[in-house]
Amino acid sequence: QLQLVESGGGLVQPGGSLRLSCVASGMPLNYYAIGWFRQAPGSERKGVSCISNNGDNTMSVDSVKGRFRVSRDNANNTVWLQMNSLKPEDTAVYYCAASLRCDNVRLPDFGSWGPGTQVTVSL
């Protein structure tokens, strides 16, 4: 059974950067597309970025395009989310999850959710 664990969150000032990691165990990571999601307080969980199983295709939602980049290393069972030019509205708990394809990073299509990592963007 695939298990995912996120790390790398923290407190950062506006304009700063963080790199989140999603480490897989239990199943070969190259079977799965991996999506990144976030959930701010009082809001629903939403898709942010996704990368196909072999890394050939990536996508991000408009609010993070040009600032966030998703990448992966299947040999080391790790997916990263590089977040640059962070804004206060990026504050949320960030999750990674697995699916067969990215499509439109729809929440119901993803499973094997990690526990999440908190990202706080503030002065």
Q: Which term fits the overall shape?
A: globular
Number of strands: 10
The largest β sheet comes out as: 6 strands, mixed
What is the share of helical residues?
A: under 10%
Strand order of the largest sheet: 2-10-9-4-5-6
N-to-C terminal Cα separation, in Å? 40 Å
The number of helices is: 0
Low-confidence stretches: none
Order of helices and strands: EEEEEEEEEE
Strand content: over 45%
How much is the radius of gyration in Å? 13 Å
Structural class: mainly beta
State mean pLDDT (0 to 100 scale). 96
Summarize the structure.
The chain has 123 residues and is mostly beta strands. The chain has strands spanning 3-7, 10-12, 18-25, 33-39, 46-51, 58-60, 68-73, 78-83, 92-99, 117-121. The mean pLDDT is 96.
What report would you give on this structure?
The chain has strands spanning 3-7, 10-12, 18-25, 33-39, 46-51, 58-60, 68-73, 78-83, 92-99, 117-121. By secondary structure, the protein is mostly beta strands. The chain has no helices and 10 strands. It starts with a strand and ends with a strand. A hairpin with a 6-residue loop joins β5 and β6.
Descriptors for this entry?
globular; four-stranded antiparallel β-sheet; 123 residues
Secondary-structure map:
Elements: E1 3-7, E2 10-12, E3 18-25, E4 33-39, E5 46-51, E6 58-60, E7 68-73, E8 78-83, E9 92-99, E10 117-121
Parallel strand pairs: 2-10
Antiparallel strand pairs: 1-3, 3-8, 4-5, 4-9, 5-6, 7-8, 9-10
